[in-house]
C-alpha cells in the first residue's frame, strides 16, 4: 500500500462510523468552529468538548449509541486550530464561553448540557461560569478534567503544573511549535496502530484496556487524522492556556457538576480533582477504582445519562 500521503493511506486504521453530520459554526467576525453531531437531531442539546489532543470526532461509540437511546443531540465542538476550526489565540479559557454562546444561539438552545473530557474540562466549566452562556447551562460533566495551575484556585501538580512553567515560551512560539508538532506527527500517522500499542504498554492497565478496544483505537486514529489537517495548533494553545489564569473561579460555576475521575490517574492525580471539586458550589465526585486517565471514555453512557436527567 502506498504511503505517499499518510493522511489518506494509513497502514492500519480500524473502521469507525462517521458522525451523523459535520460542519462549521460561523462566529461574528468570520471565524469558524468545526463540529461533528451525533444522536437525535431533534433531541436535547449537549455540547461535548474533546481532550488534548483531540478534535470533533472524539466521542466513543458507547457515547454515540447512548445519545441515540437517550434522545440527545450531542455536538462535539472542535477548539480553534483543530480540524475545521480556524486558529485563534484566546487570552484565557473563559474566552471559549463567549464563542460557545454563539454556538448555542445557532443551535437554538435555551438550555443545554456540557461535557468536558480531560483538556476539555476547563472549557466545560467555563461555559457554566461565564455569562451570558452560564444562564443556559443545566449541568456539567467532567471526565478526568485538568485543574487550574495559576491564580487563587491553583491546584495542579505533575504534568499539568508543567504548563505554567512553559507558558511564556508557548505564547511567543505558538505557531512555530505547532509546525514542529505537525512535522513530527504527520509522517507517523501510517504507523498509528503500532504507536498506540507502544504507548499503551507504558500506561496503567486500565488505559491499556481502553486502547486495546478496536473501536476506541479507531476513534482515536480517525480523530487524529482530522486533527492533523488543522495543523495541531490546538494542542499548543491548550497547553498555553492551562498555564494561565482561566479567567474565572471554580466557585463561579453555577450549574451542578458531576466529575468522574480514576484513582490511578497519572496525568491529573485524584487529589487534584478532589480539591477542585471541593471548590465548586454544587459538585459530586465519582471516583473510578483502579482506573487511569483514559477511563472516562468507557463511562460515556453513564455521563450522558446524568446530563439527560438534568435537562
Distance between the termini: 49 Å
Question: Which sheet architecture does the biggest sheet show?
Answer: 8 strands, mixed
Tally the beta strands: 8
Strand order of the largest sheet: 1-2-4-3-5-6-7-8
| Beta-strand share of residues | 15-25%
* Rg from alpha-carbon coordinates: 18 Å
Helix/strand order: EEEHEHEHEHHHHHHEHEH
Q: Percentage of helical residues? A: 25-40%
User: Structural class of the helix and strand makeup?
Assistant: alpha/beta
Low-confidence regions: 1-11
Number of helices: 11
Overall geometric form: globular
Indicate the mean pLDDT. 85
Concise description?
The chain has 311 residues and is an alpha/beta fold. Helices cover 39% and strands 16% of the residues.
Amino acid at each position: 500500500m502506498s504511503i505517499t500521503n499518510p493522511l489518506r493511506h494509513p497502514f492500519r486504521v480500524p473502521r469507525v462510523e462517521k458522525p451523523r453530520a459535520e460542519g462549521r459554526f460561523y462566529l461574528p467576525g468570520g471565524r469558524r468552529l468545526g463540529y461533528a453531531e451525533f444522536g437525535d437531531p431533534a433531541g436535547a442539546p449537549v455540547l461535548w468538548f474533546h481532550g488534548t489532543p483531540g478534535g470533533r470526532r472524539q466521542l466513543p461509540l458507547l457515547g454515540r449509541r447512548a445519545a441515540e437511546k437517550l434522545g440527545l443531540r450531542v455536538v462535539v465542538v472542535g477548539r480553534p486550530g483543530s480540524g475545521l476550526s480556524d486558529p485563534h489565540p484566546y487570552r484565557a479559557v473563559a474566552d471559549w464561553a463567549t464563542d460557545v454562546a454563539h454556538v448555542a444561539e445557532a443551535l437554538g438552545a435555551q438550555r443545554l448540557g456540557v461535557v468536558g473530557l480531560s483538556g476539555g474540562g476547563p472549557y466545560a466549566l467555563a461555559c457554566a461560569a461565564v455569562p451570558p452562556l452560564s444562564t443556559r447551562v443545566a449541568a456539567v460533566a467532567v471526565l478526568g478534567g485538568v485543574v487550574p495551575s495559576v491564580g487563587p484556585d491553583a491546584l495542579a501538580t505533575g504534568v499539568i503544573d508543567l504548563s505554567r512553567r512553559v507558558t511564556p515560551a508557548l505564547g511567543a512560539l505558538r505557531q512555530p511549535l505547532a509546525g514542529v508538532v505537525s512535522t513530527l506527527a504527520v509522517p507517523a500517522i501510517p504507523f498509528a496502530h503500532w504507536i498506540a500499542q507502544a504507548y499503551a504498554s507504558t500506561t496503567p492497565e486500565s488505559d491499556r484496556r481502553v486502547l486495546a478496544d478496536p473501536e476506541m483505537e479507531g476513534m482515536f486514529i480517525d480523530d487524529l487524522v482530522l486533527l492533523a489537517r488543522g495543523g495541531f495548533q490546538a494542542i499548543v494553545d491548550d497547553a498555553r492556556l492551562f498555564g494561565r489564569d482561566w479567567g474565572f473561579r471554580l466557585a463561579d460555576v453555577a450549574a451542578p457538576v458531576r466529575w468522574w475521575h480514576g484513582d490511578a490517574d497519572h496525568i491529573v492525580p485524584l487529589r487534584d480533582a478532589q480539591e477542585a471539586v471541593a471548590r465548586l458550589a454544587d459538585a459530586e465526585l465519582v471516583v473510578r477504582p483502579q482506573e487511569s486517565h483514559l477511563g472516562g471514555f468507557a463511562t460515556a453512557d453513564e455521563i450522558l445519562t446524568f446530563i439527560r436527567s438534568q435537562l
